[in-house]
Design goal:
One of its GO terms (molecular function) is kinase activity. The protein has nine helices and 13 strands. By secondary structure, it is α/β, with parallel strands linked by helices. It binds zinc ion (ZN). Zinc ion binds next to loops.
Length: 308
């Protein structure tokens, strides 16, 4: 119905992006709140439930009919049971978040993984909307990815599909947060690029975007560091392309803000490595940091279509 809306929350380590979204994907109202992760997982859960209930009330006050709720969280998510299994930055340990939200709101609810639902939103509403096979890669502190086919993100048997950031591209290379060495994330994430430059230059506090700017200005060391990262990224992407044969690769996260400074050399580097595979289009994400919230809304809308 035209006055229906879903409640959508994208819960991050520091903030929550929240919205009331209509069935056609348009945002009726958006708001942001602190996650309050420092107060512990129980406080975060209570906060999520309060914000969701507030949004449902806001919908009714605006003459809308809240019909479902969708919540996206980081970490390990069991989408089938609606459980936030584990999260390092929010502290979740087996929280049955979907049922808690459904009980509090008296509405059907869905729980999803932040990057997977963000990829879903980019695939259906954003940069990948004219393609069936989309690989979404978020490059920030880490590198996370989602493989989306026909608008559906694949979670894998254990909720860990599409972890392109942990493809090993430099065996024996820098240690990764996952415990391995030389993962793509350990050499080509925004933090890895900043760290590498600091290591080689001896300068403190240089970020990946500083490195990109210095490289563009012609600084030799910055160009070397940036090229190393692009080459590693192309190696990881070649493996991803061998596995997924994506029609389009959508790059999001902080490092994608670099735009063509990232995209152009990456296209060239991947093209140089491609043998029998087909070259995907490589583009920047279109939805920015609202992708996760829109994806949570899509998840909520999907629950209404699925037979119960
Ligand atoms: Zn790793």
């Amino acid at each position: 119905m035209s006055d229906d809306a879903v409640v959508a929350l994208d819960v991050g380590g520091t903030g929550m992006k929240c919205a009331l979204v209509r069935p056609d994907g348009t945002v009726h109202h958006a708001e942001r709140h602190p996650t309050l992760a420092a107060r512990g997982p129980e406080a975060v859960t209570a906060n999520i439930l309060d914000v969701a209930a507030g949004l449902a009330a806001r919908a009714r006050a605006d003459g809308l009919n809240p019909v479902a709720a969708g919540v996206a969280v980081p970490g390990v998510v069991d989408e089938a049971t609606g459980t936030a299994v584990w999260s390092s930055n929010v502290g979740f340990r087996d929280v049955p978040l979907r049922d808690l939200v459904a009980d509090r709101l008296g509405l059907p609810a869905a729980l999803g993984h932040d990057v997977r639902v963000g990829g879903m939103a980019e695939a259906r509403l954003g940069a990948g909307r004219d393609q069936r096979h989309v690989l979404f890669i978020a490059i920030g502190t880490g590198i996370a990815a989602a493989h989306v086919v026909d608008g559906k993100a694949f979670a894998g048997a254990h909720g860990a599909a599409g972890e392109v950031g942990h493809v090993i591209v430099r065996p024996g290379g820098p240690p990764c947060g996952c415990g391995a060495r030389g993962c793509l994330e350990s050499v080509a994430s925004a933090s890895a690029v900043g760290r590498r430059y600091v290591e080689l230059s001896g300068l403190a506090g240089v970020t990946a975007s500083d490195v990109v700017a210095r490289a563009a200005a012609g600084e030799e060391l910055a160009r070397t560091v940036w090229t190393e990262a692009i080459e590693a990224f192309a190696d990881g992407l070649l493996t991803a392309q061998a596995l997924y044969d994506a029609g389009i690769v959508v790059l999001g996260g902080g490092l994608a803000e670099s735009g063509e400074a990232l995209l152009a050399p990456l296209r060239t580097a991947l093209d140089a490595r491609i043998t029998f595979h087909r070259m995907p289009r490589i583009v920047r994400a279109a939805l920015g940091d609202t992708a996760g919230c829109l994806g949570a809304a899509l998840l909520a809308l999907d629950t209404l279509e699925a037979p119960s």
